[in-house]
Amino acid sequence: MRRSVLLAAAVAITFSLPRVAVAEALATFSDLDLLDQTREAVRAQDADLALKLLTEMQRRGTGIFAGAKGAVCEEVIVLPDGITDWKFHAVARQAYIRSAMSRRLEDGSCGCLFADFSFDAFVQQSLGKPAADLVNADREALAKVRDQDRRETEARYRDLEQSCRAE
Asked: Which of 18, 33, 122, 126 is the most buried (most CB within 10 A)?
């Protein structure tokens, strides 16, 4: 009884929190509560909540994601709505990947390029502002980041990848 009351309170709080805080609220759920809430969201056909809950399950490696061979390593690039330059996303993506490669080369790590290095952290490091503040005019600065030691970085990273596969 107490568990269901606490769970109901957690759900009520989750729905009343701003979007940014939802992920933090989900992180406080136990694995069993997370599974229960996911089932309820699917039954209620609440796609947005179900996606958030499933994403949290994937992050934890629980439920249907238990025993999966780690999370998929891919970049997540969220650009502000005001970006209308059609080349912007490609340049931003390439600059982000090049910077992530440089970070892995510095620490000699074989891990996911984007682990502990969000797109927002990349933009903050490279341009000194959050990704939400990007504007079309920032494409040139990102192109400079992308092109900085690009060929050398990519060649060295290929060597690192091969040594990681050999281990």
From this structure: 122
Buried b / exposed e over 117-146, threshold 16 CB at 10 Å, is bbbebbbeebbeeebeebeeebbebbbebb
| pLDDT tens column, 39-54 | 898 899 998 888 888 8
- Measured distance CA(148)–CA(128) in Å, rounded: 17
| Burial environment of residue 8 by CB neighbours within 10 A (0 to 12, 13 to 18, 19 or more) | exposed
Structure tokens belonging to residue 102: 């440089």
Extract the tokens encoding 20. 């940014």
Listed as own residue / partner, the contacts of 65-74 with beta carbons closer than 8 Å and 24 or more positions apart are 71/112, 73/112, 73/113, 73/114, 73/115, 74/114
